[in-house]
Design goal:
By secondary structure, the protein is an alpha/beta fold. It has one domain: 3-Layer(aba) Sandwich (Rossmann fold). Helix content is 28%, strand content 26%. The chain contains 8 helices and 17 strands. Helix 4 packs across helix 6. The longest helix is centred in the middle third of the chain and has 17 residues.
Amino acid sequence: MRLTVIVTIILLPRYLWNMLLLIFQVYISDLTELFTWTCSRCNDLTKGFEMIELVVDVQSCLQAFVGVAHDLNSIIIAFRGTQEHSIRNWIEDLFWKQLDLNYPGMPDAMVHHGFYFAYHNTTLRPVILSAVQNARELYGNIDVIITGHSMGGALASFCALDLSVNYGMQEVQLMTFGQPRVGNAAFVSYFIKHVPRTVRVTNENDIVPHLPPYYTYFPRKTYHHFPIEVWLHDTGEGNQTYVVENICDGSGEDPACSRSVRGNSISDHLKYYGIELGSDSSGSCKIVMDNNIGQYHTDLGGSIILSRDPTTSSFLKSKLSTDALSSSV
C-alpha cells in the first residue's frame, strides 16, 4: 500500500487549501445548490462562505462566482476550468495557440486573443466587477483573492490584472492551479509589477502548465509563465512516497520545477492535493437549476446570472445583532 504524506517546505498561506476547495465547488453544475451553498460538498469543506454572484456564460461555456470568505476576511472570485466534450481536444489546441494580440496599454506585451476575450468579451467581466464593487462598498477595502483551475486560471489572471490596473485595487491576490501560459515575457513583467501577490501551483507531470510551449531559444517571442510557481511532486522510494511543495525561483520558468519533467499527464491535471477537479456531471456545459429561485435573470445572450444583496445576508444580520447586544451590555 502506498503511503502519501504532504511535506511543506515553506509554510504557504492557509488560503492555498481554501482556494482549491472553492475551485472544487465552482465545477458544480447544479446552480441552485451552488448559489445557495447547499451542495453536498460545500459547507462540509468551506464553512462561512457567503455567495454574492454566480454567472454562467452559456454561449462560451464559462462559469464563475463572487463571494465573501469571512474567515479569510476576503472577497473571493473563482473561475471554472474548461468544460469541453473532450479535455484532450482542448489540450491539443493549446499546442497551436499563437501570441496574436497586443495587450492594451503595454508595448511589446503579447497574449493570445482567446484567453483575453474569454474574460474581457463575455458576460463574466461586467457581472464580476459589479459584484466586487458591491461587496467592497459593504465590507470595505478588504483583500480580493482570485482563483481558478486550468482555463479558469487564465481567466483569473486577466481578472486580477484588470482589477489592479483599471480599478486601482492594490489588495489583489492571485492563486491558480494547473493554468496554461497566457502571454510573453513582456506581459509577465507588466503583470507581476501590478499583481505581485501571485502563486501558481503546478502538479507533477500536469501537461497544461507546459502549454502553449515555451521555446528556450526565443525567450522574448515565446509564451512565458509568471512567478511564483509552487510545484507539487512525489519523492521517496518504494511504497513510501511524499508529496513535496517546491517553491520555485522568481523567473516563472524555473528549470528545476515543473519544467524539469516532461509534463505529459492529463490525470495529474485533474487532481491536485488528492482532490478531483472537474464537472460533477457527464457531458459538456450541463446546467441544472430550479427556475423558482427568485434571484436570477438571463441576459440577451442567454447567460444566467444569480445575484443576492449582501446586506440581507444572514451573516450580516447575525453580526449586527451581536454588535447591538455587545453595545447594550
